[in-house]
Amino acid sequence: MTMWADAHIFVYHRFGDSRHPTTDTTITQITKEFDYLKNGGYRVIPLKKLVNALKDGSNIPDNWVVLTIDDNFRSFYDNALPIFKKYKYPFSLFVYVEATQKRYPDYLSWEQLKEISKYGSLEFHSYSHPHMTRLSDKQLKADFKKGLKIFKKMLHVEPKYFTYPYGEYDSRVKKIAKSFGFDAIINQNMGAVGKKSDLFDLDRSALVGKSNLKYLLKFKYLHATWIEPKRYPEDGILKALHVETNTDAKSGGLYITNNGWRKIDMEGGKANLPLNIKLKNGRNRVIISIKNAISTKLLIKDNRWN
Ligand SMILES: [Zn+2]
């Protein structure tokens, strides 16, 4: 039996490219995934349809699925486009502009991208694919300006959506990205999209390597306000958790990178507890769950500018 739970956005990177197993999806795998969506009654829709429904405040059907591809790798054109065409599945491909502009060997040409745009939409994924939290405001704005200018000049379209390189961002990066007028911004935090999702912080699960589509489709969107943590703590110690959800849950789950999941007590949907956990990674995720609904806070260490 299929369990539908909110809409989901997925991201692929490379296809049938065994040189990069952690970011690759094999042809067997993608065919299995597409069959699962088809046979399970899921509706693969263009990103635009989901964004418009969110803008209108209409209900988001539980069986909606949006497929995206980050980075304009050749392997999409060579190995995956024929499969997308066969299933008639729409997609949005997010372009790393410099790679095409400078003709990096593993990347698509402008001509190939134009051909691809007959089947899906082309969107923006930065000029130089930087770790955005490491750039100053000035550097960050310059990257957007340069990339958007070349994108429009070469493809004659204006990108409507943006994804962060490496999925790395914080509130400062988000604010600058938003100032460039995108209709929506999509992160790379596992989860789902519901009526109350933030158009400029839509959760998106990765379908690469050994990821499990069936498992990822079970997640629901959790509407939560993160009071603490808001950013990577200066001393690297996660002191406390203070999150308010729109539920009346008495307990939930808490995940912290390198620490796994634990059960936590909540009061009327609110979590407020001391942690004192030393973060070991540069990129950490704190996830709160109530049943199968989740909300993520991404904490990135090398944020020299905050
Ligand atoms: Zn990328």
CATH class of the largest domain: Alpha Beta
Summarize the main sheet: 6 strands, parallel
Helical residue percent band: 25-40%
Assigned CATH architecture of the largest domain: Alpha-Beta Barrel
Order of helices and strands: EEEHEHEHEHHEHEHEEHEEEEEEEE
Bound molecules: zinc ion
Mean pLDDT: 95
Distance between the termini: 48 Å
Radius of gyration: 19 Å
Number of domains: 2
Give me the secondary-structure category. alpha/beta
* Beta strand %: 25-35%
Plain-language structure description:
The protein has 306 residues and is α/β, with parallel strands linked by helices. It has two domains: 8-219, Alpha-Beta Barrel (TIM Barrel), CATH 3.20.20.370; 224-300, Immunoglobulin-like (Sandwich). The chain has helices at 27-39, 47-56, 74-87, 97-101, 110-116, 137-155, 171-178, 213-216; strands spanning 8-12, 14-15, 24-25, 43-44, 64-70, 92-95, 121-124, 161-163, 184-186, 205-206, 220-221, 224-228, 237-245, 251-256, 260-265, 270-278, 283-290, 293-300. The strands form five sheets. Strands 1, 4, 5, 6, 7 and 10 form a six-stranded parallel sheet that branches. A hairpin with a 2-residue loop joins β17 (283-290) and β18 (293-300). Bound molecules: zinc ion. Residues 70-71, 96, 125, 129, 165 line the site of zinc ion (ZN).
